[in-house]
Design goal:
By secondary structure, the chain is of the alpha/beta class. Helices cover 31% and strands 25% of the residues. It has helices spanning 19-29, 42-48, 86-94, 189-200, 209-224, 237-250, 268-279, 290-297, 303-324, 337-342, 380-389, 394-397, 417-436, 489-502; strands spanning 8-13, 32-37, 52-55, 81-84, 98-114, 127-128, 134-148, 154-159, 166-169, 174-177, 228-232, 254-260, 284-288, 328-332, 370-372, 445-459, 462-475, 483-484, 506-511. The protein is globular and about 80 Å long. Bound molecules: xanthosine-5'-monophosphate (XMP).
Length: 524
């Protein structure tokens, strides 16, 4: 088994919104990489022993006194360096060149001409002009540009607005690009990154799904040995992939606890149990705690308090089940790499954060377990790939996100079992129709919301005075901002009719046309 971490790239993050994308592209190319804050210690960088370093873009203005710089050690290690956007500018300034405000800030597409046959860009083009020069369509996003090459550097790309759009010191294998190869708008971006990673840094492509799985299984076995592991299984992507990995690695040394809190979607509890317990042979204990959750949520209408109550109730139940099991030594968690990055400082080894289950509450401190976190180096798309390879159902791996507190934050105000029943059925009709009309995969999140207000309707000759269901559908990349999905009216009409015909307690269906901001995606 080759060491899949042997060839690796370090990405120093100067704060660009695209930094994680750089990492995902490199992983897709087949090479391991990690992100670290741009001010990470020299000791960390040296110990990491990178095969190459990438300096990301960032929001700083390179001539500001307080703007960030790459640690000097980066230039002492004698490894290839690629500076992207701000990364190129700080490289220029640190190595004796200059950067100043661009005459024209550039945001969007630009065409650059590759120059001087650099190792990085030679032979990579979208077009060739009549003079035989390679041209590339690239994505620019900058207000500052390099205006003087550092000593030893030559020009490798230019555009009409940006005379120094790329530079290189080919003896040292230092490269700078003013544009963003990591975004898909730069059509040849992956090829350029691949040229840097595979040819210039000479990294072997060992980061493949098969290799990752082998590595994970081996690591789990050596960490756990003959001991027992407990996993809180929610049926979401991360905990499901952890369950299947642990099952493969240690078989029945694994016990999962699945808490049915009465706030799950239609048949969800049975589906999770069928998938894991029956089809995959995983030992799963189902804790039926519906009434416990409803009792604790009774009369509470504040969204944040509801979240807290659900989080604490989850811990109570999980704790209770865990205590029934004897001799458990490890607690497994579905922490993934973005959680680690977001919990800050992780790359420098400063933070060891326990992911609270469902992002609500946290696990009690008196649960004295060591942690098993097999996914903590992986991005979500890598986790999904592993899930596919290990035979988890695709519809489970590609399901829209579902919040930890579940229907608890989709029933506005106090939660009642009766409301949950209505919402479950309405939501299920909506999902069925989205799937039937091939719209489910075209949107990023869709769900129904229960409004505990009554509205008048008529069916036949009868007056109806009953509840309202709202339909929420969004398109989004990062869930930080979102646009409401423009679904066809005929489709919405069909869904609305089905809901009102099939659920007598609903007298009105409305469609949410609020963007985020100012609204949030969830209603609570
Ligand atoms: P908002 O409503 O904040 O949602 O625009 C953004 C994304 O986060 C999900 N969400 C949650 N997920 N626990 C979770 O695990 C929560 O308490 C929670 N609240 C919102 C939401 O579904 C959307 O995908």
């Amino acid at each position: 088994m080759p060491n899949i971490h042997h060839h690796k790239i370090l990405i120093l993050d100067f704060g660009s919104q695209y930094t994680q994308l750089i990492a995902r592209r490199i992983r897709e190319i087949g090479v391991y990489c990690e992100l670290a804050p741009c001010d990470v210690s020299s000791h960390f960088i040296e110990n990491f022993d990178p095969s190459g370093i990438i300096l990301s873009g960032g929001p700083d203005s390179v001539n500001d006194e307080k703007s960030a710089r790459a640690p000097n050690i980066v230039f002492d290690l004698e490894v290839p360096i690629l500076g992207i956007c701000y990364g190129m500018q700080t490289m220029a300034v640190q190595l004796g060149g200059d950067a100043t405000s661009a005459e024209k800030a550039e945001f969007g597409f630009a065409q650059i001409r590759a120059r001087n046959q650099s190792k990085l860009l030679t032979g990579i083009n979208d077009k060739i002009n009549t003079d035989g020069h390679g041209l590339l369509d690239v994505w620019m996003s900058h207000g500052i540009e390099v205006t003087k090459l550092p000593p030893g550097f030559e020009l490798i790309a230019s555009s009409e607005n940006c005379p120094i759009a790329g530079f290189a010191n080919q003896d040292k294998n230092y490269y700078g690009l003013q544009f963003h190869p990591e975004v898909t708008h730069t059509k040849q971006g992956v090829k350029i990154l691949e040229r840097f990673i595979a040819d210039i840094c000479e990294c072997e492509k060992r980061w493949t799904t098969d290799n990752i799985i082998k590595d994970l299984l081996q690591n789990i076995k050596s960490q756990v040995g003959e001991q027992k592991v407990l996993l809180g299984l929610s049926g979401g992507v991360d905990s499901s992939v952890v369950a299947i990995l642990l099952q493969k690695a240690i078989g029945d040394q694994l016990t999962c606890v699945f808490v049915d809190n009465g706030l799950l979607r239609l048949n969800e509890g049975d589906e999770v149990m069928d998938t894991f317990s029956q089809n995959l042979g995983v030992k799963v204990i189902r804790a039926n705690a519906q009434q416990f959750f409803y009792d604790h949520l009774k009369n509470e209408s504040d969204p944040e308090l509801k979240r807290k109550i659900i989080g604490n109730a989850f811990i109570d139940i999980f704790n209770r089940e865990a205590k029934k099991l004897k001799d458990v030594n490890f607690l497994a968690q579905g922490t993934i790499y973005p959680d680690v990055i977001e919990s800050a400082g992780a790359a420098s080894g400063k933070a060891k954060v326990i992911k609270s289950h469902h992002n609500v509450g946290g696990l009690p401190e008196d649960l004295q377990f060591d942690l098993v976190e097999p996914l903590k180096e992986l991005f979500k798309d890598e986790v999904r790939e592993i899930g596919i390879k290990l035979g988890l159902p695709k519809q489970m791996l590609f399901r829209h996100p579902f919040p930890g507190p579940g229907l608890g934050v989709r029933i506005l105000g106090p939660v009642k079992e009766e409301f949950a029943e209505i919402l479950r059925r309405a939501d299920n009709i909506f999902m069925e129709e989205l799937i039937n009309h091939k719209l489910y995969d075209k949107v990023d999140q869709a769900f129904a919301v229960f409004l505990p207000i009554k509205s008048v309707g008529v069916t036949g000759d009868e007056r109806r005075y009953d509840y309202v269901i709202a339909l929420r559908v969004v398109e989004t990349i990062d869930f930080m901002t979102a646009r409401w999905a423009r679904l066809p009216f005929d489709f919405l009409d069909h869904v609305s009719n089905r809901i009102m015909n099939e659920i007598s307690r609903v007298s009105r269906v409305v469609y949410d046309i609020s963007g985020k901001p100012p609204s949030t995606i969830e209603w609570e």
